[in-house]
Amino acid sequence: xxxxxxxxxxxxxxxxxxxxxxxxxxxxxxxxxxxxxxxxxxxxxxxxxxxxxxxxxxxxxxxxxxxxxxxxxxxxxxxxxxxxxxxxxxxxxxxxxxxxxxxxxxxxxxxxxxxxxxxxxxxxxxxxxxxxxxxxxxxxxxxxxxxxxxxxxxxxxxxxxxxxxxxxxxxxxxxxxxxxxxxxxxxxxxxxxxxxxxxxxxxxxxxxxxxxxxxxxxxxxxxxxxxxxxxxxxxxxxxxxxxxxxxxxxxxxxxxxxxxxxxxxxxxxxxxxxxxxxxxxxxxxxxxxxxxxxxxxxxxxxxxxxxxxxxxxxxxxxxxxxxxxxxxxxxxxxxxxxxxxxxxxxxxxxxxxxxxxxxxxxxxxxxxxxxxxxxxxxxxxxxxxxxxxxxxxxxxxxxxxxxxxxxxxxxxxxxxxxxxxxxxxxxx
Amino acid sequence: xxxxxxxxxxxxxxxxxxxxxxxxxxxxxxxxxxxxxxxxxxxxxxxxxxxxxxxxxxxxxxxxxxxxxxxxxxxxxxxxxxxxxxxxxxxxxxxxxxxxxxxxxxxxxxxxxxxxxxxxxxxxxxxxxxxxxxxxxxxxxxxxxxxxxxxxxxxxxxxxxxxxxxxxxxxxxxxxxxxxxxxxxxxxxxxxxxxxxxxxxxxxxxxxxxxxx
Lengths: 428, 213
Ligand code: SF4
Ligand code: SF4
Fold this sequence. Notes:
Chain A is α+β, with helices and mostly antiparallel strands and 428 residues long. Helices cover 44% and strands 18% of the residues of chain A. Chain A is globular. The relative contact order of chain A is 0.17. Chain B has a 6-stranded mixed β-sheet with strand order 3-8-7-6-4-5. Chain B has a two-stranded antiparallel sheet with strand order 1-2. The site of one iron/sulfur cluster has 14 residues of chain B, from loops.
C-alpha cells in the first residue's frame, strides 16, 4: 500500500546504463509512453521507488528487461545442439488448469529450457482500462487476475488516493492478508497434489475453501471482488465472524503442517528442486516469494508505514529451493494470521469511504501473495488517460525459467507451483 | 497413516447439496442482486458496468460487482441460475474437460474447488478428464481470446458423441466486463452457468443439469 506521484528524472542513455550496473537497486518496471521510456527502480533496503525517463532505449544488460517488454523468446536457449527435442506444450492441456503454453527443450530426461508462451489469455486489460471512469476501471483491474484481485484493486486505489479513512485501510489490509492466506494454502495444496499425497490435498484444499467462505460472508464475494472502491471500501466487516474462523483455521493448519513436514516423501520432492541462488535473484531482479526464499529481503510491506504498526515480520529463507519457498509461505501464513488478529482487535471507528478527486500521474504498489504488484496510472477528471501495470508473475517467470533449467522432468510441477505463478497475471 | 486419522477426526464436511438447498455457510449473500422496493433503477442502470440492469438483472451479463447495492439493490442467495438447452442422454457418470479460453483465474479456481471435500463432486459421478477424447462435457470458462478459441474448437472436435458444452462465468457467456462477445459466437452452448466467478454450488448445479439431473 505504497503510493506517490510519478516524478521521473530525465537522464541520458549512458546514465541509465550506469544505473543498471548497480544490482542493489532492482529494476521494477518498464513502460513505453509515447516516444519516452519510463524505467521504475526499487531500492528495497531504503524503501525507495524511483523513476527515470530516457529516450527510447532497450536496457539489455538487465535480463528482466525482455520479459517487461514482452520478448519472452529471448530466454530461449539458442542452438542447443543435436539430439535435443523441442516441444510446444499447451494451451489447454498443461495440467495447470490455465490456458497457457510452454516451449520446452529437452534431452528426454532433463529440462534444458522451458519458456512460457504467452498470448492465450491476452484480454488486453490495460487497453480496455484507458478511457474508462476510475470507478469502472477498478472492476477490470480486479479481473486482471482474480486470485490476486485484492492486491491489484488495492494498488490501483491507493495510487489515486491521498490516504483513505483508517477503518477502510484496516479492512483493505484484512482482505489482502486473507488473500495471501488462501493463495499460500493453495500453493501447498498444489505441491501436495504434485506429490500425489491424496489425503493432504483434500485437507489443504479444505483450508482454501474455508477462507473463500469467510470472504463470501464478509465481503459478499468469495474473491472479494468489489470490496475496494475509490476512497475506501464498500463493506464493513463483522469482526466476530473472522475471530471464530481464524482460530479454527490456525489450529487445523498447525496440525497439517506438522504432518506434512514430517513426510519424507514430500520433503524429498521439494528439497533441492528448482534452486535459485542469491546472485540469481539480484541478477534477475526477482521479487516476492522467489527473492525471500533465496535470502533477499524484498517485500514492499517492510517500508509501508501501515505495516510498521502491525506484528508484520519479514519471512526469509536461504536455500532458494522449492522447500525454502514453501517454508517462507508457511511462516507467512502464521504471520498473516497474527496480523489479521491484530487488525480486528484494533479496528478503528471511522467512516468507510471518503471523497477523492482524481487527477495526476501516480503509482501504487502492494505486496500480493506471490510478489509485489506495481500500478502507475494517469488520470484526468476521473477518467484514466494511461495505465501501466507490472504484474508480479511476469517478473518471477524469469526466475522460474532459470531455476528449472537442468532439473529432471518430474520436478517440473514442483518447480512451477512453488513460485505460485499465474498465466492470467502475466498474460494480461 | 496420520493423514487418515486426521480425516476421520475431522468428520463430514461435505455439502448436502443437491438433496438439500445450499446451506448459509456454502452460499451466503453472494448471489444475483435483486432490487429493493425503493430501488433507484435509473441510477443503478446507468452505473452498472456491464449494462446488466434493465427491467430485471440479466444474470449472464452481471459481474457481481456489488455496485448496484449503492442504489438499494440487495444481494440474494440465488446462485443456481443455470439454464439448459440440451442435456446428455445418460446421467450415471460424466467426464468433464475444462477449457480455459482467457479467464482471470478465479473461474479456474472455483472449478478446481469442486474437488475439495466440501463439494466432493465424485460422489455425484462427475469427474475431470485431462483429455477431450474421454470427455462428455466441455466446460468453457473465460473471455474468448481468438488464439485459444482455435484450440477449443479442436478439443471439441476430438470429443466423442454425445457431448454437451457448458459455458460458465459472465466472461464466457457475454464477455462480461471485457467485451461484447461471449463464447457462443464460436460454439453452440448447451448449458449456461452465470456468475463471476460461478461459485462451486452454481457449477455443480450446471453440471448436474448437463447430465440431465
Ligand atoms: S452487481 Fe454489478 S454487474 Fe451486476 S447488476 Fe449490479 S451493478 Fe450490474
Ligand atoms: S467470469 Fe469473472 S471470474 Fe470468471 S474469468 Fe471472467 S472475470 Fe474472471
